[in-house]
Design brief:
The complex is a heterodimer. Chain A is an alpha/beta fold. Chain A is built from six helices and ten strands, in the order βββαββαβαααβαβββ. In chain A, strands 6-7-8-3-9-10 form a six-stranded mixed sheet, sandwiched between helices. In chain A, β4 and β5 form a beta hairpin. The longest helix of chain B is centred in the last third of the chain and has 54 residues, at 237-290. Classes of the chains: A alpha/beta, B alpha+beta.
């Protein structure tokens, strides 16, 4: 379970988030919606332990992750979180498979186990056919699938997506939505930060949290 | 613990950045090669000169400012002094060939004296002195041998005495080439022959050598000799060794200059690497941190990556310097250390590995490089991953 309790984040005098509180059950799908600058991405990065709140705390499965020292925050990102960035953040000189491999290295697994996980992740993200293609030569949709496979490879409980449909065509959005349904059925907790209205009509049960100027409005 | 996946990933990053790594490897190897070559040459020269000097008499007496000759009666006076042993007589004069003006250092030795035979048996290849003394023979240095061969004197040479008569002396053997730094222009002949070549009387000598087994008495003996003989110079083998060391140390001044230039190049290289990490690799480190790599994981990867490149360039640099100096005798570079010579000087360098200096090069080369990688990597890795990605 993810518990966000009275979380505020300010940069100087500017409040990106103000007293945000909500809870997400395991396997739940939550959409953080709102216009640009409403605080969706900031909230997502706090849940992903990329940053710490100015006040309040975030608890994940009983651990207050917002107070984790760097090493524990890294372990949390490695094992519990799968983050898909808006611009995917792939290493451009690596192939698809090598990008996915990069997420497994700190786990110190055997080569056999690593390869098995990479194959599974690529199958789930439907990118196996591009395994050896350089990531810089992929289309937007393929890059996203590569980033999703990298997020899935360590079998995390929580998947975080930052504006996942921002650079996708209609067909890719459709295929992304199908993927979300699969992850939901796998029992993953999913949090999407988006202002794309197409994602508000998912077939799976979703909770929508609307943000405006750093505050929850609905 | 390093897993096979980590090694696999390390190989991948090395491959991906191979152009940059290759340039660091080549420049690094070149720096280590030049430093190690200079080091090997100086070590070998110092070793050879030390070996030759060690075999010399503890002290050598000559006439003050080399004006005139010593007298054999002075040997008797010396032998009466307490604490002196192995007193040996010597003729040591320079013989000028004409018209080219090349010169040989002729050393006339009394081979029946123990010290005389011991000193030169070490640098002669054959060392069969009985056979040597049976005729009018000479041992010649490599440079003398080359000069005589060039002038078709393959078996003997006619020395011209002051009276104008020619003295034919047979070439018995050449002195070992690895001692050429000292013996290149030497001609070693029996004492009486040397006296004949220079028109000296039988009781005249250029120098007298002797040993003082008690090291603590060396300074006292020297003072006593100056008091007894007002017109002599006394030189200890320590002073000769110091003179050689000073020559090589002076020549290694060039080496230091070279080193400073290389160090500057190296610093530029370090700076480039530093800047490259801050700009090009910042995003890559940010991505790795965002997907769960800890600061230590990132440092481990970058440290391993650069260690592989820098250590392999160090090893290749040292190995190629070893081959260059000890197998190919350091063409071009050796002339920097040997300088100009009366006769053509060709040396075979004896392989000497100075571990302390190699360790010093390792520390001066590898440590700053790794530090220059680790510090900026740590700075980037310890910033917020989102900041590194932006």
């Amino acid at each position: 379970m993810i518990k966000v309790e009275k979380v505020s984040k300010c940069y100087g005098e500017f409040y990106a988030l103000k007293d945000i509180s909500f809870e997400i059950e395991q396997g739940e799908c939550v959409i953080l919606s709102g216009v640009s600058g409403s605080g969706k991405s900031t909230l997502l990065s706090l849940i992903g332990a990329f940053d710490k709140p100015t006040s309040g705390f975030i608890e994940v499965d009983g651990d207050i992750i917002s107070k984790f020292p760097d090493f524990h925050a890294s372990t949390y990102r490695l094992q519990k979180i799968g983050f898909v960035f808006q611009d995917f953040n792939l290493i451009s000189s690596f192939s698809v498979k090598e990008n996915i491999l990069s997420a497994t290295i700190p786990l110190n697994q055997s080569k056999k186990e690593t390869n098995k996980r990479i194959e599974e992740a690529m199958n789930l993200a439907n990118i196996s056919h591009k395994a050896f293609q350089n990531s810089s030569s992929l289309s937007g949709g393929e890059k996203q699938r590569c980033a999703i496979a990298r997020a899935l490879v360590n079998n995390p409980d929580i998947l975080l997506f930052d504006e996942p449909t921002a650079s996708l065509d209609a067909k890719s959005v459709e295929s992304f939505i199908k993927m979300l349904e699969t992850f939901h059925h796998m029992g993953k907790s999913i949090i999407l930060a988006t202002h794309d209205v197409r994602l508000l009509d998912l077939k799976i049960k979703t909770k929508v949290i609307r943000l405006q100027d750093g505050e929850i409005i609905a | 613990m390093i897993s096979s996946s980590f090694l696999n990933f390390l190989y991948l990053t090395l491959q991906t950045n191979r152009t940059r790594h290759l340039s660091i490897f080549i420049i690094g190897s070149l720096i280590v090669f030049i430093l190690s070559s200079s080091l090997f040459i100086v070590s070998s020269l110092k070793y050879e000169s030390k070996k030759v000097v060690e075999a010399m008499s503890d002290f050598t007496i000559t006439k003050l400012n080399h004006r005139g000759y010593l007298h054999t009666s002075q040997i008797d006076e010396l032998s009466q002094k307490y604490g002196l042993s192995a007193i040996s007589s010597r003729v040591q004069e320079r013989y000028f060939t004409t018209p080219q003006g090349y010169s040989f250092l002729i050393i006339g030795v009394d081979f029946f004296e123990e010290q005389g035979s011991k000193e030169f048996s070490d640098i002669s290849k054959r060392g069969d002195f009985k056979k040597f003394l049976m005729g009018e023979n000479m041992l010649i240095g490599q440079g003398v041998n080359d000069y005589l061969s060039k002038n078709h004197y393959d078996k003997y040479f006619n020395f011209k005495t002051p009276s104008g008569a020619l003295k034919k002396i047979n070439i018995f053997d050449t002195l070992a080439q690895n001692s050429s730094i000292v013996s290149n222009d030497m001609v070693i002949i029996p004492l009486s022959l040397a006296q004949e070549i220079f028109g000296m009387q039988e009781d005249e000598l250029s120098s007298i050598g002797f040993n003082v087994p008690n090291d603590a008495e060396w300074d006292n003996v020297k003072l006593e000799l100056y008091e007894s003989f007002y017109d002599i110079d006394v030189v200890s083998k320590k002073e000769i060794q110091n003179m050689y060391d000073e020559i090589f140390n002076f020549k290694s001044g060039l080496f230091i200059m070279l080193f400073m230039i290389l160090l500057f190049t190296y610093m530029v290289l370090l700076y480039t690497k530093y800047s490259s990490i801050l700009s090009n690799e910042k995003r890559e480190i940010g991505i790795l941190r965002a997907i769960g790599w800890s600061i230590n994981d990132v440092l481990k990867l970058k440290f391993s990556e650069m260690s592989f490149v820098v250590i392999s360039s160090y090893l290749i640099g040292v190995l190629s310097a070893y081959i260059f100096v000890y197998i190919f005798n350091a063409p071009l570079l050796s002339s920097l250390f040997l300088g100009s010579s009366n006769l053509n000087l060709s040396i075979i360098f004896t392989p000497i590995i100075d571990m302390l200096s190699l360790m010093m090069i390792f520390l001066l080369f590898v440590v700053p490089f790794l530090v220059a990688v680790i510090i900026p990597t740590w700075r980037v890795a310890s910033t917020n991953p989102k900041e590194a990605l932006s």
